[in-house]
Amino acid sequence: MRMASGKVAREGILSALHAMLALQEEHLRAILSGKFDGLERWTFERRKVFESLRHELEVVRGLSLQELSPELQEAVLEGFEKIVLNEEELYAAAERQRQKAKGKIDQLRKGKKALGGYRVQRSGPAPRFLSNRG
Rounded CA gap, 42 and 60, in Å? Predict the structure, then answer.
């Protein structure tokens, strides 16, 4: 791994943190609006951003303490705290949507069962023709 300066490391880690926070906001908006059509894309995007974040953390880890300003340390800590809070919020929102979907599915099942009660039950063979005579 090539060594990076404190300034390059600062820009890289902060950029990766901001990318993750922006992605979380986008995903939360989609979950709250009930739009899940991009789920496969979300997985790809999250994996890509996590890899970038991991790489930038490795760069920062390779620096000496003198190269890491207290401001950078604070910014990174705050960034990760926000990421954790956002993940908890994302999980809660997804769980609420899951419960809502489960409720709708249960309601549909009850409706299907109720409709089944209107089905004509025959004990013998089906008639071959209909007659107007009583």
Answer: 27
